[in-house]
Amino acid sequence: MSADDDERFARELRAAIERSELSLTVISQRLRARHRPVSVATLSNWQSGRSLPGGEQSLGVVAALEELLGRPPDSLADLVGAPRLRGRGAQPTSFLGRRTSKEVFREALLELGFTTAQQYAHERVFHQFVTIDSARDVQRFDSRLAVRALESGVCRLPAVHVLDPTEPNVAPVYTALEGCSIRRRVVWPERRAYGVELVVDGRLDAGQVATFAYRVEMQAPATSVTGALYSLPRRANDVLIEVEFRGGRKPVGYERYRRTESGEAVAPARLDRRERLQLSEARFGPGTFGLRWEWGDDEDDEDDDDWLDQEGMVS
Fold it and tell me: Which domains are present in the chain?
């Protein structure tokens, strides 16, 4: 982390506190009520730049601060880093989901009208089914959610993609499938950023639960897609991501990815007999989770298919 990041964390935390119009004493009390105790002196040191959060407990406080102050998830935590869990580190990859180029991503959220975390509906159940087809140049991401309204009125969520430089810079196609509609849009080809505001049908009372579904079609060959990840600003009851690979080519390596306030974890994954990857979590969040994979050249793919066939014959 650079000195610039140090200063930026202090500056952005200080600005968020000023906008909230809460005293450090009140913030400390509210964090303690959320089981994230931190002293007024420590908060003062953080916002002045005299010290920075460090360790899992302090980073948990930062995550709670983001929600309390109406900041997007990870917007402050990313400026102080996070401890890695033991094991192999996460490898650089391009993502499809809510997290890629952070600065552009946040600007897109603002453009869609999401200025605070409180404006997100609470995602209680999330299921994404991804179809990666090497015989087509369109890859499909179908998402179905059950959300709880945090306040009475319109219930909405964003869907934003910032394309990696290796991906074709073609706008994804967003389609409302059930129980929702699409309103505002972001189309920024010069920034490789695209997104929509998803609005649940009807007006909900605070605490009411609704379900909806939408589809994202990525205009790209299968080998340009290397992951399916999703970020949650709050704890969800159940989350599930499934990826099915179709066509003649398969990736040569697969992994599960999980990032919370405690750090990052990467574990190997394997295709099941349906040619699918699956990742499920109960009571997950806030954090990012998902599946990632790596493509080889044609010869590597053929060798990998042979190995899978042999493995499948062993009882």
Answer: 3-79 (1.10.260), 102-313 (2.60.40)
